[in-house]
Amino acid sequence: MYKIFNHKNRMSGFTLLELLVVMAILAAVAGTATIALKDTDARAAAAAHVAMMDELNKGVHTYRVLKRNELPNRFDSLMQLGATDTTDAVRAGSTAASGDNLLGWDAADAATVALDADTVAVLGDAGINTLMYIDTTATGADHDCVDVNETIQSRTNAVVANNIFMSPEANGCGSPEALVAGSIVTVWTGGSERLTGTPDATATYNDDGNPVYIQLGVGPSCTLFNTRELGGMTTVPVYRHVGGDQYGRFIAIFEVGTWDTGAIEAIDQVEFIGVVDGALDTKEEELGEWDGTRNTI
Question: What is the total count of domains within the chain?
């Protein structure tokens, strides 16, 4: 004998409390996934930066070999014409009072030095005789360069931060300037150990006997990216951990001499040391951002 049960009066489905619990769990999972995806995106960018730094290192070395010991020319100076100190270097055309910072550095991250005739000659022998400087008197078809940051932020022209050292005809504010005694360039202040593994003899970067490292932006005006040149690369790498109105290129480091009472004692041959990112972090430091052991993104 089988019993027949009447199911008509039985309730099915979730209670309101159960639905609220499920919704809370889903919200928590979604939030965690969003955070994880953001972190993954940042780490992927850091990994790409490391690869770009490697490619630039190889590119400069290959160029030098193929060009018989000649380095690329027309790097971005990271300076404006008439600049005398790091305020002009890091702000590149804006006044210090404006608070704008084209290069994204603190003044403590870089210093400046005037090249002497011997250092200019050594750089020239290595192929570096011209750098791109920002000219605040320059004008293009749809822009002027009086205030570079204002020009970059304007929506009425085609100027972007990454190309700011290009000529006005190429939607920039740059001017190619031949290096002469007295030309101002930026110098690395982070010590030798971060670059080469060998500590400086003394703690302060410009103490007598310490190496002088100049730093130059690897921008699109550089002959490294002239595809008609032997050894020219086809793509100009972009450093993306900067704001939209900040310069986003990588920086090449060259040893040009040793410090001697605040001036340069030129060495016999310029040495290419390597590439740091747009925030002046080394490859190892950028790797730390990629593997999560260093969070500066």
Answer: 1
